[in-house]
Design a protein that fits this description.
heterodimer, A: 276 residues, mainly beta, two-stranded antiparallel ribbon, 16 strands, 4% helix, globular, B: alpha+beta, 21 strands, 38% strand
Chain lengths: 276, 379
């Protein structure tokens, strides 16, 4: 149960960009169960930091909202395959944007346990919807991503604490005017002691990470053809029923800092999953 | 014998240099520090004093400035000029006439209804800038907005003579070029070579990274989107808003390097930050470079085609290798051509003409302002 929690924390502690902020449960159920996961993410930024560290403040905040639903099926006790459909609403300067389909992704994930660590990996292919917008410059390239996570197994660390490290890489090929895009993100979380609140178990984890990108691209919006980077930090809170470990609700809050050629803001994501 | 030897050595030390024919190695070219004066700049191969004389069209000498400093570069500023008058100037150094046939037009009076100027940028290679210079002379165009990236690859000082001053030298002797910083210019000490080489106003930024110029019926505002903050609340943003708000100019033009609307690569941040402000104050045309092509958009308001909006012209055909492009919904014309754009204003009518290096016109449009300041862009 604790291992599951740790890898859940690993999964949900992945903030925007969109695909990697989805709930990822690397530990497939012992039986070939169906699972549905939903996540709502909001990222708000009012500044872009350019390559000379000039802070270009926007006249109003840019808000990127995303709602994603993923349906997956366990193929065995290790493998799971699924489809995720994200919807987005990008808005800026007053008028509300339209909610639209961002694209579709398919994924394959695997998890395993050893006496020291729990491991999982997930490979995804994302195909963007054909979006045209008068304000936003959207990338129209498909994207592949690989996510790997390592979490300490039970008893490795004192108390009920766990350490998690996530590494994700993304790649989108050149498309029309958009150069090929690549990004690598490293994130760590340290889950604190577990607390019981009635029929619920709650656990919090501070998290921090760093991302390198070949260009300034966020949630598929293209900002600059220059190498981009940024650190982020925040916290994850996980809440689940004590008798239903496979069902949970998680909240993640992160803030960007030391960014270069990058948006600077904060993000909140709320995710939930249920198994059938 | 000793006496002869001594005399010979003295001759070598003093007399021989005096016999050296002074050579101008850069310029002359013109600078513009404000709306009422002109600066004439030149550089010689060895240090010497310098003098410039101005003559009116009738041939009368109307001004004389001397720089007694024995230096290689001279900058002489002539104030109190008659607005719009074309002067002939003569440069002397070391007691010799170095240039006799320079000419310079004084800044136009704000009461003037007529003005002509050109815009281009991303100058690369020697052939295209040279050809553009010849066409500018043929058309008697004396004011040019350079949309950035003057010298590739990094805007280094040592590249300016061969890649810019020589190819464009014939025109620079008679016309004023006002450049904005491009991303390549900024690569060397944040654009310091460009800022040192040009005499520009300091009414915006004291280093002239952004500034404005009033010529006749038009306000020209140069912005720096490469090395300065331009976001809301920044000095540049506040200055821009104030400048656009306070002007009584009939026509307003802004230029900076990276286009917010382009069939090649658009700058999303500039679109967020500057586009709404430019629309708010009814800027007529924004000139940009960065994309190596020519493009004219439809009038854009609220991020889409709209009556009375801002027209964005990418004039990046100064010689750099062409950029890939995909025409967008807001694109009126786009072409991969070595080119420049000419703007001619006569009262309420503006005519724009895009000219390639063969002298052929490949785009023409007009903007007319009526009494109610509504605008109709026609092609």
């Amino acid at each position: 149960m604790k291992r599951l929690l740790v890898v859940l924390l690993a999964a949900i502690a992945l903030p925007l960009p969109a695909q990697t902020s989805r709930l990822i449960d690397p530990k497939a159920e012992a039986d070939s169960s169906w699972r549905i996961e939903a996540a709502l993410s909001i990222h708000r930024a009012d500044t872009y930091v350019d390559r000379y560290y000039n802070r270009q403040r926007f006249p109003s905040a840019l808000t990127l909202e995303e709602f994603a639903v993923a349906v997956s099926k366990g193929l065995s006790d290790r493998w799971r395959v699924g489809v995720e459909v994200p919807f987005e609403n990008a808005s800026f300067s007053g008028p509300e944007g339209a909610v639209r389909l961002r694209g579709t992704s398919v994924f394959l994930q695997a998890g395993t346990r050893t006496s020291i660590v729990d491991l999982f990996s997930r490979a995804s292919y994302f195909h963007p919807a054909d979006r045209d917008d008068p304000l936003f410059i959207y990338s129209k390239s498909p994207e592949i991503s690989l996510v790997g996570a390592v979490a300490t197994a039970d008893g490795i660390l004192p108390g009920s604490t766990r350490a998690v490290v996530n590494l994700s890489v993304r790649y989108a090929p050149e498309h029309q005017l958009t150069k090929a895009f690549g990004a690598a993100r490293l994130q760590a979380a340290w889950s604190l002691r577990e607390f019981r609140a009635g029929r619920f178990l709650m656990q919090a984890a501070p998290t921090a990470g760093f991302e390198l990108r070949s260009s300034g691209q966020f949630a598929g919006i293209h900002f600059a053809n220059r190498a981009s980077s940024g650190a982020f930090g925040g916290a994850v809170v996980d809440l689940r029923r004590s008798h239903s470990p496979a069902e949970s609700l998680s909240i993640t809050v992160t803030r960007d800092f030391t960014v270069l050629n990058s948006l600077e803001g904060w993000g909140v994501s709320l995710s939930a999953r249920k198994t059938f | 014998m000793k006496g002869l030897r001594r005399a010979f050595i003295l001759f070598l030390l003093i007399g021989a240099p005096a016999l050296h024919a002074l050579v101008i190695v850069r310029g002359p070219y013109l600078g513009r520090a404000d709306d009422v004066s002109l600066t004439i700049i030149w550089r010689t191969d060895v240090p010497a004093d310098g003098e410039t004389r101005l003559f009116d069209p009738a041939g009368n000498q109307v001004a004389l400035l001397r720089d007694a400093a024995v230096v290689v570069e001279h900058r002489l500023r002539f104030p109190n000029l008659t607005p719009g008058l074309v002067y002939r100037y003569e440069i002397r150094g070391g007691g010799e006439i170095l240039v006799e046939d320079g000419s310079a037009q004084a800044p136009l009076s704000p009461q003037t209804d007529l003005i002509r100027f050109a815009a281009f940028g991303d100058t690369a290679g020697e052939e295209t800038p040279r050809r553009i210079g010849e066409l500018l002379i043929e058309r008697d165009l004396r004011l040019v907005l350079h949309t950035g990236d003057i010298v590739y690859p990094t805007g280094a000082s040592e590249d300016y003579d061969r890649k810019f001053f020589e190819p464009l030298g014939r025109w620079l002797k008679h016309g004023v070029m006002l450049p904005t910083l491009g991303n390549h210019d900024a690569m060397t000490r944040r654009g310091e070579p460009l800022l040192q080489n040009f005499v520009l106003p300091t009414n915006g930024d004291r280093e002239s990274r952004y500034f404005s110029v009033r010529e006749g019926p038009a306000l020209f505002v140069c912005l720096d989107v490469e090395t300065s903050s331009y976001g809301k609340g920044s000095d540049q943003y506040r200055w821009l808003e104030q400048t656009l708000k306070q002007t009584d100019a009939t026509w307003k033009f802004v230029w900076f390097h990276e286009p917010p609307y382009s069939s090649s690569n658009s700058n999303q941040v500039i679109r967020f930050v500057l586009a709404p402000l430019l629309e708010k104050y009814a800027v007529d045309i924004v000139f940009c470079g960065h994309a190596h092509l020519y493009e004219r958009t439809t009038p854009i308001r609220d991020f889409t085609t709209g009556s009375g909006g801002v027209v964005y012209i990418t004039a990046g055909g100064g010689g750099a290798s062409f950029s890939r492009f995909v025409p967008q919904e807001r694109t009126a014309v786009v072409a991969a051509k070595r080119s420049f754009v000419v703007i001619e204003i006569n009262g309420p009518l503006l005519t724009g003409t895009a000219v390639d290096v063969d002298g052929a016109v490949f785009d023409q449009f007009s903007i007319r302002k009526n009494v109610a300041r509504k605008r109709a862009v026609r092609r």
